[in-house]
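Design request, tokens follow.
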């Protein structure tokens, strides 16, 4: 197996600020009802699947077709890896008391309630742009930006393999629901945003929401950003396999003797993924999707991926996977919307100051309304510079 060619391109500029407001800076993807066709089958491949080819084999030629292809990828992740994301429940209500949101849902006679607390920024005025932290955030709270602490383990527990079906999500949808913990968290974040829209707009600017988390919570943040279109900026941090790393690349590196987390290990470790994923975990070449396409589900919204060079996380896999994801953004004409930063030689989730400048560019643009462009950011610390590839496709020129 081969590695992707990488080039280090950093574009840093001093930020200028504008009042946060809905604008072309926060592009949303077009909603799609497209799903995988009936009787769909996938030809096994050890290479990363081509995101620019429909399930029926037709190649994309126009940007307008991307929404439908994105719908297919969304459907594939639900059917083969993450489990089903239920639609908005029949009843979603809530309240805001001080800095605590209470979220209450009822669906088909089953109910659940959870709370999320807000940490106000030390500067700025409400309503604040906000980052929803899956289990909190692992970088300094940005100036002028609130942090909403999402109680992920309350919504779906993930201590170990015995946690499956435990949490408020499963109180509503039952222990046999196909959704793993990551998709259950996504549902919970969506319900939190519903309540912010209902009662919290005096405190939180719902047009400028981000999501972040580190390690297992980084996997969750990535999935939330992929499936919740009201998120303007997704910031997965050191998410490793099941996040920014691609299953196929990690398997290849494992076969070469690397100490790296793989699909066949992760499904035995915890309940982050659906049991629908189990048959593919030992044969990832048969999986119709991979995690460059998780990044593709975020497009064209803001995405800033923070990685580390810890072996278990798979820095080569992360770097290769995310370059493939950046190719989607480039084909859609928004290459600057996806920034990538891999910096090593620090403890897990400790966030070195050398990554702050690039993170600030994305915070400023997508949450604070800065008019300063981020530039194209790809800092991979040299991982993947082997002049070969894990892909057999190229990004098309879409009309």
């Amino acid at each position: 197996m081969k590695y992707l060619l990488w080039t280090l391109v950093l574009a840093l500029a001093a930020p200028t600020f504008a009042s946060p407001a809905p604008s072309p800076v926060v592009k949303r993807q077009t909603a799609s009802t497209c799903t995988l066709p009936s009787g769909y089958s996938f030809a096994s491949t050890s290479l990363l699947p081509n995101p620019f080819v429909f399930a029926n084999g037709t190649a994309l030629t126009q940007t307008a077709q991307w929404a439908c292809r994105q719908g297919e990828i969304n459907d594939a992740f639900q059917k083969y890896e993450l489990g089903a994301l239920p639609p908005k429940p029949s009843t979603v209500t809530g309240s805001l008391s001080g800095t605590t949101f209470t979220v209450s849902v009822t669906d088909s006679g089953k109910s659940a309630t959870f709370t999320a607390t807000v940490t106000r920024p030390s500067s700025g005025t409400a309503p604040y742009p906000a980052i929803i932290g899956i289990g909190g955030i692992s970088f300094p709270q940005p100036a002028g930006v609130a942090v909403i602490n999402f109680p992920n383990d309350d919504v779906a527990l993930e201590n170990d393999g015995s946690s499956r079906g435990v949490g408020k999500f499963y109180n509503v949808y039952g222990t046999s629901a196909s959704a793993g913990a990551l998709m259950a968290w996504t549902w919970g974040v969506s319900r939190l945003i519903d309540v912010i829209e209902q009662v919290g707009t005096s405190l939180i600017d719902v047009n400028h929401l981000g999501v972040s988390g580190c390690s297992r919570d980084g996997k969750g943040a990535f999935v939330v950003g992929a499936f919740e279109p009201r998120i303007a900026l997704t910031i997965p941090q050191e998410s490793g396999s099941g996040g920014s790393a691609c299953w196929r690349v990690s398997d290849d590196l494992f076969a070469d003797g690397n100490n790296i987390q793989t699909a066949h290990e992760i499904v035995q470790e915890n309940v982050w993924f659906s049991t629908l994923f189990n048959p593919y975990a030992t044969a990832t070449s048969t999986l119709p999707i991979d995690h460059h396409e998780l990044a593709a589900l975020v497009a064209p919204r803001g995405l800033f991926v923070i990685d580390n060079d810890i072996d278990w996380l798979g820095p080569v896999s992360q770097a290769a996977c995310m370059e493939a994801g950046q190719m989607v953004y480039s084909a859609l004409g928004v290459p600057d919307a996806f920034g990538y930063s891999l910096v090593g030689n620090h403890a897990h989730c400790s966030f070195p100051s050398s990554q702050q400048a690039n993170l600030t560019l994305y915070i400023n643009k997508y949450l604070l309304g800065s008019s300063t462009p981020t530039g194209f950011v790809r800092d991979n610390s040299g991982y993947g510079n082997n002049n070969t590839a894990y892909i057999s496709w190229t990004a098309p020129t879409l009309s």
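Comment from the thread starter after seeing the answer: thanks! The first helix runs from residue 66 to 82.
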